[in-house]
Amino acid sequence: MSLFTQLQRRAAENRPIRIGLIGAGKFGSMYLAQVPRTPGVHLVGIADLAPDTARANLARVGWSDERTRATSLGDALKTGATHIGDDWQALVREPAIDIVVECTGNPVAAVEHCLAAFAHGKHVVNVTVEADAFCGPLLARRAAEAGLIYSLAFGDQPALICDLVDWARTCGFPVVAAGRGHKWLPHFSESTPDTVWGYYGLTPEQAARGGLNPKMFNSFLDGSKPSIESTAVANATGLTVPSNGLTYPPASVEDIPFVTRPIAEGGVLERKGMVEVISSLEADGRRIPYDIRMGVWVTVEGETEYIRNCFEEYNAHTDPSGRYFTLYKRWHLIGLEVGVSVASVALRGEATGVAECWNADVVATAKRDLTPGDILDGEGGYTVWGKLLPADTSVRIGGLPLGLAHNVKVTRAVAKGQSLSWNDVAMDTSTAAYKVRREMESLFAAPLLKSA
Fold first, then answer.
1. Nearest to 73 by CA among 42, 103, 102, 40
2. In this structure, are residues 382 and 193 in contact, taking their beta carbons and an 8 Å threshold?
3. Predicted confidence band at 331 (pLDDT cuts at 50, 70, 90)?
4. SS3 of 148-171
5. Beta carbons of 378 and 402 less than 8 angstroms apart
6. Residues near 335 by beta carbon (within 8 Å), at least 6 away in sequence
7. HEC string of 392-450?
8. Which of 94, 107, 124, 264 is the most interior residue, by most CB within 10 Å?
């Protein structure tokens, strides 16, 4: 039975999936725009540090005042309306809520929210992929131990890539490579919130009109978000990662199967079975026609002559050898698609992407020369960007995960372009996020180093 049919049945039975949302910013607002249009779902409560801003966002996406009239979570359950407040702990404690959608974008807070949700018997759809990137494997383990589901969020590119990889493997195709697109030139790694709009392709006026956060958008541009999302994909699918970071080969959609082959066959891959990100810009900055900048893709291999003949007979676009074929979605709709995760978790008991191993990590890397006393400001900021590395490499160098490089003091000099280690900073070791990360390292590091 389709997810939509099951949602309709839940609506007819007055037995909706009950949701709690933490964080009602841009991503959360996009999901909120779809909630009134989705049967069988009741958004019981929203927890946000700025409830008035959350209300303004709800009005912006078309919610009526009637829908948000609930004076408490209990009142929301009685009336079918939604309660808005700033107490996330009350939200995760509410027994009637089935799923918590973590949508803050704050990786340290997100870990605390996820763990508390598990402790109170709640499934989690984690939009804050930054948290998944530095401790997703342990979050997934904690959820499973509690008999719960932890899931990446559909609409965000990692879950869409995982879906394509699952399609390929379920069909019997070996996955050669999978990933997303990005607008990339090497110097973008140095971009700051002051330079982001010119590189990104928006005017400051357009950004202000949309209420766009320059630091968040800079995390996309400077390579941090592509690394974060590629890490989530690698850990959820078992695909490996480039040995020294993403290479961002430029390619049109047409050329993806040509580029995403092993080096020995004319492509860019160190080996088959890797994640990679395709650039929508040539090395000289020229825009590539029919690019994959906002999309996702998977390249598969036709292992037999018969399969390759089928590719040819059905006009599947392949590389010149006819061996490699790429399936793609050219667009992703971000928060507008989160309902797929909510329905999949609640109705099928299936995550839309979940970490199953620790193959990859994102290590904070200096955007400029750093000196003792400097304060790191995390992804998208002025001090560091995120570099994708194999997990065993990160363990060997004691890499500082980007998700924990927020409001942290530098204690010794770090040269521009150098990845930071735990020994370069003074960490707050009291947070749940730090403890979970260190626990994950203790559980996973020995096998990684043994196999390296």
1. 42
2. yes
3. very high
4. CCEEECECEHHHHHHHHHHHHHHH
5. yes
6. 26, 27, 28, 29, 30, 31, 33, 34, 103, 127, 155
7. HHHHHHCECEHHHCEEEEECCCECCCCECEHHHEECCCCCHHHHHHHHHHHHHHHHHHH
8. 124
Number of Cβ within 10 Å of residue 347's Cβ equals: 18
pLDDT value, residue 402: 97
Task: Give the type of residue at 313.
Answer: E
Question: What Cα–Cα distance (Å) separates residue 78 from each residue in 44, 71, 83, 291?
Answer: 10, 11, 11, 49
Q: How confident is the model at residue 192, as a pLDDT?
A: 96
Per-residue CA distances from 75 to 24, 37, 139, 181, 216 (Å) = 20, 22, 32, 44, 35
The mean pLDDT value of the chain amounts to 96
So what's the architecture of 3-155+335-348 in CATH?
A: 3-Layer(aba) Sandwich (3.40)
pLDDT in tens, 191-228: 999 999 999 888 988 888 877 889 989 999 999 999 99
Go through 41-54 and write b for each residue having 16 or more CB atoms within 10 A of its CB, e for each that does not: bbbbbbbbeebeeb
Q: 405 CB contacts (<8 Å, ≥6 apart)?
A: 364, 376, 378, 379, 383, 384, 420, 425
How far does CA 366 lie from the centroid of its chain?
22
Cα–Cα distances in Å, from 136 out to 113, 173, 334, 357? 13, 27, 20, 9
pLDDT band of residue 134 (cuts 50, 70, 90) is very high
pLDDT of residue 213: 87
Q: Are 143 and 131 in contact (CB under 8 A)?
A: no
- Residue 401, beta-bridge partner list: 363
pLDDT reading at 247 higher than 90: yes
Report, as an integer, the average pLDDT of 344-367: 98
pTM: 0.96
At residue 210, the pLDDT reads 72
Instruction: Please state, in angstroms and rounded to a whole number, the distance separating the CA atoms of residues 447 and 74.
Output: 48
Is pLDDT at 452 greater than 70 in this prediction?
A: no
For 64-86, the pLDDT digits (tens) are 999 999 999 999 999 999 999 99
Q: What is the CATH code of the structural domain delimited by 360-451?
A: 3.90.1210.10
- Helix (H) or strand (E) segment spanning residue 300: strand 296-301
| Range list of β-strands (E), 197-289 | 274-279
